[in-house]
Structures are given as structure tokens and as C-alpha cells.
Design brief:
It holds the Pfam family TetR_C_13. Keywords: Transcription, Transcription regulation. The protein is an all-alpha fold. The protein is 74% helix and 0% strand. Helix 4 packs across helix 5 and helix 7 packs across helix 8. The longest helix has 27 residues. The chain is elongated. The protein starts with a helix and ends with a helix.
């Protein structure tokens, strides 16, 4: 029984791994059981079985892509601490993730946001929750940096979150569509400049600047 459960888990992970790669290029709506079955050399029933439906497979695919983003970008930030050190680590990891994306079509979350923003339903709701948590995490670190005196107290954290997110989305397009090799380093510089522009005074300059 234990062996069967482990085999089932491995099969499910394998299906989701292929689904993430295909959805990065074709979109979540482009995932079809038939195409996945052919790629995996499995029956259609074998592909959909671990999930129960195509919709649940799509949700599992989205969850995996979000988890990969969090592991690549948020985990290094948490390891660095809170506030400004966390933000600096997140920016570095974020830009590296954009440059060396594990997905064929760049940032999965950005692509899915464009695909799903006008399509109400469970997939959009799941993505909305994931993006909301991500933005809340950034806002919390900005607030922590303000409490530490590293960022100006009158800064609206949501303003800076929007600035950082906009830079990242622009960089993703520049990398994926325009083939701009400088996009990731430019994004990193612009993000750090955005942080530095909200320093409360000269005393904080040394803390916000990074090597």
C-alpha cells in the first residue's frame, strides 16, 4: 500500500511537471488531457485520474508554478531577515529568476495574470489569492524597513509594491519578447534605485546601499 501511494505521488508530480512546462507556452487554457497523455506516453484516464478533472489539473499546475516562484524568490528573502535586507535579497533573486526562468515562456505568474485577468472562475481566484499574498509579503517588508528607519515613514508601501512589480513585468517582456540581455540587470538597478529614493535621510544611505 505504501509503495502504491508513493508511485501515485510520483506519477502525479510527473504529470504536473509536464503540465507546467506546456502551460508556460500554451497557457493554462491550452492544457489538454490528450496532448499531455501523448507527451507522457500515458492514457487520458491515467493523466486525469490523479486529479479527477481537467480543472483540478489546471489548479495543480498553477499551484506548482506559484510554489516554484516562492521558492526561488521569497525563500532567499526570508533567509536574509526582515525589512531592507529581505527586500534586497528578494530583488536579487527576483531578477535572477526573470533572467533564468525555469519556464519556457518566462515568468509563469505574469503570463497567467495576462491570460486570466478577464476570465472569472476558480483559476483566476486562485491566482488572485497567490498574487495578493505576494504583494502583501512585499508590503510587510517595506513596513518593516520603515519601522527600522531604513525607509521614509510617509511612504505608502503599496506605491513601492506597484513600482517594483511594474519593473519586474517590464523586464519579463524585455527578456522574453525583445531578447534584451541587459533587462535583468537594468531591473535590479531600477528596483534598488526605487528603494534608495525613499531613504529618510543621509543617515540611512549607508544602510540602503548594497555592494
Amino acid at each position: 500500500m505504501r509503495k502504491s501511494a508513493e508511485e501515485a505521488r510520483r506519477t502525479r508530480d510527473r504529470i504536473v511537471g509536464v503540465a507546467v512546462s506546456r502551460a508556460s507556452t500554451l497557457g493554462l487554457s491550452g492544457l489538454t488531457i490528450g496532448a499531455l497523455a501523448e507527451t507522457l506516453n500515458m492514457s487520458k484516464a491515467g493523466v486525469v485520474g490523479p486529479f479527477g478533472s481537467r480543472g483540478e489539473l489546471q489548479l495543480a499546475t498553477l499551484d506548482r508554478a506559484v510554489a516554484m516562484f516562492l521558492e526561488a524568490v521569497v525563500a532567499p528573502g526570508r533567509a536574509a531577515g526582515t525589512g531592507l535586507p529581505c527586500l534586497h535579497a528578494v530583488i536579487d533573486a527576483w531578477c535572477a529568476y526573470l533572467l533564468q526562468s525555469p519556464f519556457p515562456n518566462g515568468c509563469f505568474v505574469t503570463a497567467a495574470s495576462c491570460e486570466l485577468d478577464g476570465q472569472p472562475g476558480e483559476l483566476r481566484a486562485r491566482l488572485h489569492d497567490a498574487v495578493t499574498r505576494w504583494r502583501r509579503f512585499l508590503a510587510e517588508q517595506i513596513t518593516a524597513a520603515q519601522a527600522a528607519g531604513d525607509l521614509a515613514p510617509d511612504l505608502d508601501p503599496e506605491d513601492l509594491v506597484s513600482t517594483l512589480t511594474g519593473i519586474a513585468m517590464a523586464a519579463n517582456q524585455e527578456i522574453q519578447l525583445l531578447g534584451d540581455e541587459r533587462a535583468a540587470s537594468r531591473a535590479r538597478r531600477l528596483m534598488r534605485t526605487a528603494l534608495a529614493s525613499h531613504r529618510p535621510g543621509p543617515a540611512a544611505q549607508a544602510r540602503t546601499e548594497a555592494p
